[in-house]
Amino acid sequence: MQVRNAIVTGSTSGIGLAIAHALAVDGCNVMLNGFGDPVEIEKTRQAIAEATGRTVTYFCADMGRPAEVRALVDAAKHTLGPIDILVNNAGVQHVAPLADFPDEKWDLLLAVNLSAAFHAIKAVIPAMSERGFGRIVNIASALGLVGAPHKPAYVASKHGLVGLTKSVALEVAQRGVTCNVVCPGMVMTPIIEMQVADQARVTGLSPEDVVQGVFLENQPIRRPVKPEEIAAAVVFLCSDAAAGVTGTSLAVDGGYTAR
Ligand code: NAD
User: In this structure, are residues 90 and 69 in contact, taking their beta carbons and an 8 Å threshold?
Assistant: First the structure.
């Protein structure tokens, strides 16, 4: 089995954590990143390392800051070696009508959800091209393919990520490097739990009714997608078998964008 080195941004919880775990199970050394309680993060790091026998490290870069994105890539190279796989997963959300949407939230969402991927890809692509192998997977959203009200920055940043993916894929198509984007539907993670709690407060509905009536209304499978289901798609896109898959959007959205 070939051991590959992977960076997964925003991997201290939710989808990113599932991706980091699945890549380690698949034989990768992994650099974790994201915010959270340092004690919990260290427990998570150790648990993945012990369960898989792989090297698992952690670097706390704020993906909204380009210099820290570059520092993350440098730290990963230093501790793991050449980077084979980059998963741009870190993401944030803010929900408000456009007229009330705070300027600083617009800047934050564009920085973390979109610009961070640009800076990370820029930092890994020369060495990937030189070595003739690389797998870049961006985590967008079903809202990278279709719109939704009250989420202007999220929808714009995720559509931007889909476009960035295509441009990168075309540029490196003949260098053994692929770049694809996974577009999840609703997955029950902290980013959604916060929105469910907000909607329950505003509407007076129970959290369960908000999930079924609002968040799963347009997701035909009528259940949340599991983080492991997103991770499995990423593992495939990072495999040798996916060498011919590049520049594409893979919707793992329970049918959300099929309508
Ligand atoms: P989550 O809140 O559980 O995880 C987000 C991760 O990003 C965490 O590790 C967090 O610490 C990290 N993060 C946030 N801001 C950061 C920053 N500035 N620098 C570094 N790390 C930062 O949410 P999730 O659902 O696992 O989201 C992961 C990705 O999946 C996001 O890009 C999100 O937009 C996307 N997504 C989620 C859903 C869903 O329903 N949960 C649907 C579609 C797309």
Answer: no
